[in-house]
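Exercise 7b. Backbone tokens:
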């Protein structure tokens, strides 16, 4: 599933491709992929800017908003020329511009494009972004201290901080030497600050590497990310820890496959 770095990479790429473009029409080839919740016509609206909150991409239009959640296998692919586009069986939504084309490809059909009148109201269930400047180390530490959830579930919830998924949660916990089942409120403040710094550093490094491609993720030009080449624990079950050589373990925890080093992240 695309997480914060992958969605930010998509946002960055689209900013150079579609800002200022006028929408001619949107066609949903699979009806559930496009959820129209606003009466404003999309025709003739212009994409004025692109934002992101957590794993949600926000296209700010002239009179309304398109909010895109890629979920597990969603991809946004941009083409300057319609003749270059690959209209395969997995294309769910077509966004046609006066010059150019944006295709929403989604193998598993879990992704959604929402057309809404007010983006903020739509995203009230999403916590502050993990890279928001308002989320300081102090704010993060206070949030941990007030929660009895285990730290893995806390970071995955999207309620307290948004954008972290399975990959970057496992990587941040390893970098901080924190066992995934440890309760948030039991993490000492110095270690909580270290987790905050590692979390932000890992997310920013992945953005520099254009995200992580495990299977389906591609940027709008169809390119894979390269951050998967630098994982310390995720996807490395049975391989030696890069720090202590102990084999990486994978367990089912917080409803997700969880990778960690039994020695570096002691229970």
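Sequence design result:
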């Amino acid at each position: 599933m695309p997480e914060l770095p992958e969605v930010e990479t998509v946002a960055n790429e689209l900013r150079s491709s579609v800002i200022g473009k006028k929408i001619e029409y949107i066609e949903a080839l699979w009806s559930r992929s496009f959820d129209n919740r606003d009466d404003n016509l999309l025709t003739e609206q212009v994409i004025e800017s692109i934002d992101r909150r957590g794993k949600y991409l926000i296209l700010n239009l002239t009179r309304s908003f398109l909010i895109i959640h890629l979920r597990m296998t969603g991809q946004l692919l941009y083409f300057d020329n319609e003749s270059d586009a690959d209209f395969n069986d997995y294309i769910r939504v077509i966004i046609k511009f006066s010059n150019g084309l944006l295709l929403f490809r989604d193998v598993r059909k879990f992704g959604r494009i929402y057309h809404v009148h007010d983006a903020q109201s739509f995203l009230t269930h999403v916590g502050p972004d993990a890279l928001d400047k308002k989320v300081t180390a102090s704010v993060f530490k206070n949030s941990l201290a007030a929660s009895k959830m285990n730290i893995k579930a806390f970071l995955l919830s999207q309620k307290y901080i948004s954008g972290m998924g399975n990959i970057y949660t496992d990587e941040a916990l390893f970098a901080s030497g924190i066992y995934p089942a440890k309760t948030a409120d039991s993490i000492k403040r110095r270690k909580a600050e270290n987790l905050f710094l590692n979390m932000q550093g890992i997310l920013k490094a992945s953005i520099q590497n254009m995200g992580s491609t495990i299977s389906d993720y591609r940027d709008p030009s169809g390119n894979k990310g390269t951050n998967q080449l630098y994982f310390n624990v995720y996807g490395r079950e049975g391989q030696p820890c890069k720090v202590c050589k102990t084999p990486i373990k994978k367990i089912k925890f917080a409803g997700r496959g969880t990778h960690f080093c039994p020695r570096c992240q002691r229970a």
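Instructor comment: Residues 189-208 form the longest helix (20 residues). The chain has two domains: 4-122, 137-260.
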